[in-house]
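Minutes, project check-in
Item: structure for the 444-residue chain
Input as provided by the requester:
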Amino acid sequence: MQKTVILGAGESGIGAAVLSKKLGNDVFLSDISNISDEAKTILDNHNISYEEGQHTRELILDSQLVIKSPGIPDNIPIIDKIKESNIPIISEIEFAGKYDKAKKICVTGSNGKTTTSSLIYFLLKNAGFNVGLAGNIGQSYAYQVATCNYDYYVLELSSFQLDGMYDFKADIAVLLNITPDHLDRYNNNFDDYIKAKFRITQNMLQEDCFIFCADDTVTINQLSKVVMQATKLPFSINTEVSEGAYIRENQMVVSYNNDSYQMELSELSLRGKHNIYNSMAAAIAGKILKIDNHILRESLKSFRGIEHRLEKVLKIKDVIYINDSKATNVNSTWYALESIETPIIWIAGGKDKGNDYTPVLELVRNRVKAIICLGLDNKKLLDTFSNTVDTIIEVKSAKEAVNNAYNIAKPGDTVLLSPACASFDLFKNYEDRGEQFKKAVKEL
């Protein structure tokens, strides 16, 4: 019996606790915040001891393994004490992977990973695979390993999850792009963030496949420094590739292992340049797994996208309201602004993660008629865009933001919630922010 401590009682922590208990370990869960009633019920049902509102050092250091939730920073005092005591600290993904024999398709990237993971899962489900979807999306991987029996998993992995992974291996790894994000967690060192993303390729063997964007210069530069056994399969909008995916005469061409597939871009259900990349990555994964071309086509044509990512809410008085609350970094917001051709009232702001708004300046100058700052501290937005946009308003709630947008908008405009920031200053999470936005729109 191993004494295991779980730090954090979110989706990840609860799943790790349940799996560890099922394996016969002595499990204790600690959360510095309050634990939800739903989580307490699960812990009580599995006879797992826990504490909330504190980290009791003696109880935590009396362990042989610590499983840390991804949202907990590495530089807090209790983590320092655990390290000083030479107790291993791993992520829930690393832990669950030790007890899972399923094939794993793992997806990371600064942007697009939820859409791409969901799309690959959709492809596999339509092809009849016994597949689970987990990681940074849905029910935790560890909980599913404890309670389900899948042959395949599609895992969306954040850099925070990858940081705590050491022996874990992907069978198919997808790296969509790397742009500055979460730099506050990486000492404002972009190189450290890049290396964290590339951890998705660690331990891969010759029979494994690495899918990556050949148009992303950061990825290509880092790839030149990495020794890798896995088969490399690039996707590109700009260049034809022998194996992987590319665009030719408005067609997506996918090739792998002497098998090819073509599809008109106009047939893809997901619109925008970023979604062409996402669709290409998913299609390559489909070909590796030998999914029939007919199923690939029908799936790529019918996939409806994910909630809070460029989600059309309503059209009111010829004004479209779009919920892109999941856009928590500047690059993601760039894609949103780039995909809209009508005048935009842009709702932005939240908890800044070291943002540099320079990449969106030109788009804002050409497409945005007003900015509504939805955050406690909007100084950086105001400093950056006060000379670019005539109308900038500060608000403190989603309802106030929507009401102001309604008053500004003219027929033919688009109201876009695409914050480019985390949500934790005014909201529980990006889902809460998106739900409050949608509720306010529906109450207009």
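Outcome recorded: The two ends are 58 Å apart (CA to CA).
No further action items on this chain.
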